[in-house]
Amino acid sequence: MNLAGVRVPVLQFVYECHVMLAEIMDFGASPDGRRRIIPITGGTFEGPEIRGQVLGIGADWSLARSDGAGCVEAAYFLRTDDGAIIRVVNKGVGAGPYGEPTPDGERLFMFTNPVFEAPSGKYDWLNKSMFVGTLGARADVGSSVLIRVFKIV
């Protein structure tokens, strides 16, 4: 396939986020798989143009699908170091493994699509861009996940 003249997406690092989680609540089996509710209790995020805290408001409604894939659908809020409140809805899917550490120590990894709702002004660029992310949970770290977000430019 010839891509000459085609604008190819490039990723620009936005931030790295350490999210703390509460005890998992098992929703149980459903026709789609096994649903779990994972409350978000806080955390921090930092990047070249944005940094602050993850507020303890939100949760991930994860689904271990019957076909072996896992899905996340998290909604939560960030507070920047200058006081702006930003809503995040982050969805993703991955093929596993889940619960079994990989050779690099991750027990979960998937790609995500975070969508932001930011106030007009300094962080309005979050409302006008598309993003992809990675979500990982390490076997050697307790109740937390690591999220990295990249802007598509």
Could you describe the 3D structure shown?
- The chain has 153 residues and is mostly beta strands.
- The chain has a single domain (11-152), classed as Porin.
- It is 0% helix and 63% strand.
- The chain has no helices and nine strands.
- The protein has strands spanning 11-21, 25-30, 33-46, 51-65, 70-80, 85-94, 106-117, 131-138, 144-152.
- It has an eight-stranded antiparallel β-barrel.
- β3 and β4 form a beta hairpin.
- The protein is globular.
- The two termini are 22 Å apart.
- The model has no long low-confidence stretch (mean pLDDT 89).
- The low-confidence parts are none
- End-to-end C-alpha gap: 22 Å
- Kindly provide the name of the CATH class: Mainly Beta
Which strand order spans the largest sheet, edge to edge or round the barrel?
1-3-4-5-6-7-8-9
DSSP helix count?
A: 0
The largest sheet is: 8 strands, antiparallel, barrel
